[in-house]
């Protein structure tokens, strides 16, 4: 069997074009969508990601501001920064780059982001609304995976989706979004015995374990759709996913590469969420003026 490679870069570009049109519309009404990115410390990977996010914002005419704080910033100073951003009229979305240094209470930081500006979809309010199927910002990576499936013409309803990994930011919400589209969902994780016996039942397999080349063809049912959310470095420091692409590619019907699969979609959905935040704020401001 030969598999179709799902091109996240291309699909992401296509979506970005339509997001860019919405940015132009907002500009005609005097609004420039603004994203604040808070970066704590000097983690080189975080710096690269943050630079990519800023570049992507600017490429479609959005405004992005980087708030760089030292590694030893206090919890209170960080919370103050976020409270300040919550109040800013020109900032529609706030993203605090994770992970944060160990002395910082990550949960408290995320909970301080105003839900109206939580374009990452990580805050307790956003997560709760997502679980209830209410209107909210969806976490960018799972949201991006849903768009990849949609744009690739892959039906989700009635399929068995197996998620490997249960992180708050990928595995858990990924299962919810698939469930909302009528998939049957199984969660697996590090304590799942005989993992291949579960993954081999997957019509759609989501690999979000954070271990390089962990998923091999022994885990795959022939014809399965394989979505690789991992971003790891192999022994040669080369970027690679959680899926051993060369091993799995022939067995899968569709597969996402790393790089060029899910990663570009994560950033695309961050742009989408930020533009949506700006649109919502404009609508609200208009409604208030008419009262
Ligand atoms: N608050 C927060 N929100 C995040 O969304 C968030 C975060 N913290 N911390 C780190 C992770 C990681 N992440 C990536 C996004 C895009 C690519 C991406 O575009 N990757 C390219 C390759 C980039 C390269 O070449 O290094 C690709 O897969 O093709 C990767 C990683 C967002 N994260």
Q: Care to describe what's here?
A:
Helix 6 packs across helix 7 and helix 6 (140-151) crosses helix 10. A six-stranded parallel sheet has the order 1-11-8-7-5-6. It starts with a strand and ends with a helix. The mean pLDDT is 97. The chain folds into two domains: 32-114, Rossmann fold; 140-262, NAD(P)-binding Rossmann-like Domain (Rossmann fold), CATH 3.40.50. With 291 residues, the protein is α/β, with parallel strands linked by helices. It contains ten helices and eleven strands. Helix content is 43%, strand content 15%. Bound molecules: 5,10-Methenyltetrahydrofolate (GUE). Residues 48-49, 52, 95-98, 120, 140, 231, 239, 258-260, 263-264, 266-267 line the site of 5,10-Methenyltetrahydrofolate. Residues 139-281 form the Tetrahydrofolate dehydrogenase/cyclohydrolase NAD(P)-binding domain. Belongs to the tetrahydrofolate dehydrogenase/cyclohydrolase family. GO terms for molecular function: methenyltetrahydrofolate cyclohydrolase activity; methylenetetrahydrofolate dehydrogenase (NADP+) activity. Catalyzes the oxidation of 5,10-methylenetetrahydrofolate to 5,10-methenyltetrahydrofolate and then the hydrolysis of 5,10-methenyltetrahydrofolate to 10-formyltetrahydrofolate. InterPro entries: Aminoacid_DH-like_N_sf, NAD(P)-bd_dom_sf, THF_DH/CycHdrlase, THF_DH/CycHdrlase_cat_dom, THF_DH/CycHdrlase_CS, THF_DH/CycHdrlase_NAD-bd_dom.
